[in-house]
Automatic annotation (TrEMBL):
Signal peptide: none annotated. GO terms for biological process: cell division; cell wall organization; peptidoglycan biosynthetic process; regulation of cell shape; UDP-N-acetylgalactosamine biosynthetic process. This is UDP-N-acetylglucosamine 1-carboxyvinyltransferase. Gene3D superfamilies: Enolpyruvate transferase domain (3.65.10.10). The keyword Cell division applies.
Amino acid sequence: MESLMIEGGHRLNGTVRVSGAKNSAVALIPAAILSESTVTIDGLPNISDVHMLCALLEEIGGTVSFDDGTVIVDPSKMVSMPLPNGKVKKLRASYYLMGAMLGRFKQAVIGLPGGCHLGPRPIDQHIKGFEALGAEVTNEQGAIYLRAKELKGARIYLDVVSVGATINIMLAAVRAKGQTIIENAAKEPEIIDVATLLTSMGARIKGAGTDVIRIEGVDELHGCRHTIIPDRIEAGTYLIAAASMGEEVLIDNVIIQHMESLVAKLREMGVNLKTSEDQILVTRSEGLKSVDIKTLVYPGFPTDLQQPFTSLMTKASANGIVTDTIYGARFKHVDELRRMNANIKVEGRSSIISGPVQLQGAKVRASDLRAGAALVIAGLMAKGVTEVTGLEHIDRGYEGLVDKLKALGANVWREKSQQNNRIDQYS
Ligand code: EPU
């Protein structure tokens, strides 16, 4: 087992370049299944979720190469191979194989997805959408079977605003006959990115990024070249790290509009930052004040940043409340932060952080991807050395984390660790 070691207390200085968006990447790669010819995607992050999806595309007969962030997928020889077990179980986003394979082959067998444990994560809205398009969907021994004679456009109202369901229904609907209207659709930037790729492949989609998406199905989709958007959550993670320990940190390759809720909250706390066209400069910020945040669907404050933000709040004066309205149980990082001397209580869907405190280095475990980011930020702020285990979660979503932090002057390294005696209840 490997650990990430962080010697806290070093101020961060320099530039960090943001990678391609993980949550786009994991949908763009399956979307390539829908094409009859080669799809090239540039700027993909070098993370395990991307490699896992590339391997899954190879399992169904695709030819896939990954070189310096560019993935080239030749989907021409793909077949509707059942994928009930194995790699599909390792990542949440394998659910996008359902929409993409249903769209192309009118059938698919996909094991129920894994991914971060953030409390219940149902996929009923995805299934409701597939059924509305004419698919028969059954759950047989932990795998979802989807079959359709043909897919027919439909009007689908999502009962819950869901990124995954919006994208998944879009993937199937681009190859359905006639018009599909998704109402109460999610509006996250990743949805626009996927719609852009599909449009370049010949799909006809209007309204992505609003809560009503209209899709006219087409008979065939073709290859294209697409550049992914920057990762707003990775950018936010470094922004929070810079707010906590930055001397002068430039975050490069961001779409500022994607960062508005976080930037507003950091300003409210008293963080010194300046934005330009595609960069954010953070300078040393002292005397931070606590704020309250409530996670909401985009453009509200992202749930994926509430855990890292909680670490920063330990440094701020007075009490701050973080409420997660998306995942009410996304608080496994709190016990770990407490080991590091944080003063945090969880009540229902909220954590209440009392500060300021000086965090202390400790041995902690990342229970999920963003909990990992929270612990890394806490480690940067802590006195002494912090050992973070559970790196498989961090590796799923952060490209070159150690190198990026080192380049900013942090003292971080990976090392083989002793067998962890704590019971691993998460993986
Ligand atoms: N939900 C349902 N039924 C469904 C789908 C979702 O009840 O059929 C509920 C969920 O339980 C949750 C809410 O709706 O309470 C929103 O879930 P959503 O479907 O939007 O989440 P997701 O698509 O599974 C993506 C990201 C997550 C991110 C959420 C929210 C990917 C692969 N994952 O998940 O990212 O937290 O949207 O923005 O895109 C991460 O990057 O760390 C991560 C967990």
